[in-house]
Structures are given as C-alpha cells and as structure tokens.
Specification:
This protein has a 9-stranded mixed beta sheet with strand order 3-2-1-4-5-7-6-8-9. The chain is of the alpha/beta class and 230 residues long. It has a single domain (3-226), classed as Vaccinia Virus protein VP39 (Rossmann fold), CATH 3.40.50.150. The protein has helices at 3-22, 35-45, 59-71, 96-99, 137-148, 177-181; strands at 52-56, 86-91, 105-108, 124-129, 149-160, 185-191, 196-203, 211-214, 219-222.
Length: 230
C-alpha cells in the first residue's frame, strides 16, 4: 500500500461510520462516492480558498471536505488549499444532528426530483455530488447545476458513464447531454473506465480542449471536438 493509499484509507475510516449512521438509514441515496474518485476530481478543481461549495446528496463528501479543511495536514494535504468560505449540503436527511450541524448548512430537498429545487441559489463556485442512479434523475442534477453555477464555476459528479453519449447502429450520434452542455462547459477531467464515471467541468471556459481522459489505464490529453469520447 502506498502512502497515498494509506492516507485515503485513514480518511475512509473517519467518514464511513457517520455516513452509515445518518445517510445509509435516512436517505434515498445510500451509496458512498469512492474516495479515490472524489480526490482525483478535487485535485483537478484545485484550491477551494474562499469558495462557496454545494454538495448534492452526499454526506460523505461533506465529511471529506471538513476533514481536509481542519486536518488536511494529517493526511498529507496542504491545509491552505481547503479553506472554503461556505459548505452547503442538499439532502433528504431529517436527523437534527445533520440539519443543525454548525460546520455546514443544509437545504432539505427531494433527491429524486431536482427539477423542483430552488433556482434562487446562485454563485455556487463548486458543485459536487453522487446523484441517485435512477434513470434520468442524475441528468436533472446537471441541468440544475447549470442554472446555479457561478461564472467559471465547477461541477463534478459521480454518474453512469453513458453521460458522454454513444453511437446508434447507423453510426449517428444521439442527442444528449454531451452536445447540449459541453458546447459552453469545459470538460477538464473524465475517468470513464467502468460503468460509473467521475468528471469535472468548468463554465465559461473554451470548450472541448485539453481534456484529461481516462478510458483504461492510459491517461490521454484529448481534444473532444475530434469525437474521441465516442
């Protein structure tokens, strides 16, 4: 086990019991986001100093960011990079231990109906989460994130890998989130090696260029305009 793997394991040991106690038994989203996937995405986003961070459905990500903000040095991270300004969890957990926690804010939502969420939230600098895997629900999370992200804001979610589209039998590309969103978002990072993928994209940046893409054990730097994701 490498030092990095060991540190990630130690982080997991601090996160799992709280997730299991509060989210596993009280939420419609009962799966944890793999910590390795979360950290890779956060590495791509970079410094959180002064940022307003919104977490969608994932108490484990809230725990991760709190640990990194207050004890990051203990896990081999630069503490200064994790000093976000505000942390907010959108959740369906009712337990007062979570809703009244002084270390982060909560917004009560129906995790399966993001189209009903308030659009009044704005200037979200970073949006992270692991949406429920129900068909089409996770796509609505992206649509909501589009509406509330700040200029140059980041969105990174853990979703099924078919978000980037596929070919029909006749070879034509289906109309999907790939065409609609990535015309004005910059897909900076995508790991699509399995059925689930983690990715990070930034609003109002030149689209399609210099994407770090992982489809196997090989890391590629690609221009997505050349259809390299298909």
């Amino acid at each position: 086990m490498t030092k990095r793997d060991y540190l990630q394991h130690q982080l997991c040991k601090g996160i799992e019991p709280i997730f299991d106690k509060y989210q596993l038994t009280n939420s419609s989203q009962t799966q944890r986001m793999p910590i390795k996937a979360a950290l890779k995405s956060l590495d791509k986003i970079g410094s959180m100093v002064g940022k307003r961070v919104y977490i969608l459905a994932s108490l484990d990500l809230v725990q991760l960011l709190i640990l990194l903000k207050h004890q990051g040095n203990d896990f081999g991270f630069n503490l200064d990079d994790w000093q976000y300004d505000k942390l907010t969890l959108l959740t369906d957990i009712n337990d007062s231990d979570i809703t009244n926690c002084p270390m982060f804010d909560t917004v009560k939502v129906d995790l399966n109906k993001p189209r009903t969420w308030s659009k009044e939230i704005n200037q979200a600098d970073i949006i992270l989460g692991f949406p429920p895997r129900k068909k089409n629900v996770w796509q609505e999370y992206i649509t909501w994130a589009e509406l509330v992200a700040a200029d140059d804001g980041w969105v990174s979610l853990y979703t099924p890998s078919d978000w980037y589209g596929h070919r029909r039998k006749d070879g034509a590309t289906q109309v999907n989130l790939y065409e609609r969103i990535f015309s004005y978002w910059n897909l900076s990072y995508a790991d699509v090696r399995g059925k689930m993928s983690v990715w990070a994209m930034q609003l109002n940046r030149p689209a399609y260029t210099n994407t770090t893409l992982i489809r196997s054990d090989k890391v590629e730097l690609v221009d997505i305009r050349e259809d390299k994701l298909f």
